[in-house]
# Entry
Amino acid sequence: MNQKTALITGVTGQDGSYLAELLVAKGYAVHGIVRRSSVPHTERIAALLAGRDRPARITLHHADLSDANSLRHVIDQVAPDEVYNLAAQSHVRVSFDQPEYTVDVTGTGVLRLLEAIRNYAAHTRREVRLYQAGSSEMFGSAAPPQSETTRFQPRSPYACAKVYAHYQVVNYRESYGMYACNGILFNHESPRRGENFVTRKITRAAARIKLGLQSRLALGNLDARRDWGYAGDYVEAMWRIMQHPTPQDFVIATGITISIRDFLALAFEHAGLDWRAHVDTDARLYRPAEVDELQGDYRKAAAELGWSPRTSVAELARMMVDSDLRLAQHEAATGVVSGQGPE
Ligand code: NAP
Ligand code: F7E
# Structure
């Protein structure tokens, strides 16, 4: 049996960690790109790294989407069958503070990867498939529901960078016949979500308030509506997109949209709290431009990939609060506060 080899950029992120677990379970040889940092930050993939009694189940390489040579080198070394590009400066609010950096990594980084794969495929005569992590943010102010045929109307430097990347993927597919596809994923969350995205900020606060570790939660716009799914379900969709006989673009979503206020109610209620007694709105947490309502139409993925979401937003909120309650109990016992940083 021929073992397939996958390369994941962004393997230390939320989605990268779930995708690495999925591909290891499917029998792939899994490689991941990590960028250099002063201390390793591989907590999300710790279970796949070498332990006292077990060998590593993935191989890590230093590279960076801002460094074309490093991408070329890793692709030559790994000789992947499938590349999943999940790396990005992925925070929309931060993209307004660091627009140039965001465009370089989230936009131009994809072009660097496409060129590295094109050159490798040309001199080895092998097919290398590419999955690009596109985003519902690309729809921006387009009216819901949004599908593969909805026009992009991006509302942030992050969304503009993702639109650029999207069309480069389409362009390489059409110009060079590359197997390259875009997953247009709506928001997806999990207990591994970064602490400065709104769902995790809410579930973490609900747990810490419950245990008396904090009393207030500051948030921005509570009226925005999002279509929230579970990251564990969405990485399965990424893999299915890459197994399709022809490279295509797919919307992945739940089709259900609720407001930040609704998500607050779900999370705080599960922790036995009334959110209205604890939440302040802070104008500094509003964005220069907002995406008001996202609601995905995933009928193409259902029909052609046999994919549909398995986790409701209420189940997702409960799963995240339960996980954050366990972390808060640990924090209460040890006094060690994790996940602190700018909001
Ligand atoms: P995430 O948790 O923020 O992870 C981003 C990953 O990219 C991290 O591993 C990060 O490494 C890495 N990275 C950042 N800059 C890099 C660079 N210059 N070179 C190499 N790696 C770099 O994001 P996520 O939620 O897993 O999302 C995965 C992808 O899907 C992203 O492209 C995101 O934009 C996109 N997306 C996400 C959602 C969602 O709702 N989660 C929806 C649609 C699209 P460090 O660990 O070193 O920071
Ligand atoms: O904001 C509002 C905020 O940062 C959601 C990324 O994964 O999904 C994510 O982008 C909403 C926005 O996610 C706070 O204004 C209110 O309307 O959790 P978020 P996002 O911007 O939707 C897309 C699909 C991606 O591709 C991105 O990579 O919540 N909101 N108060 C707040 N948001 C944050 N972060 N913090 C607040 O205090």
Q: What stands out?
A: The first helix runs from residue 14 to 25. The chain is about 40% helix and 15% strand.
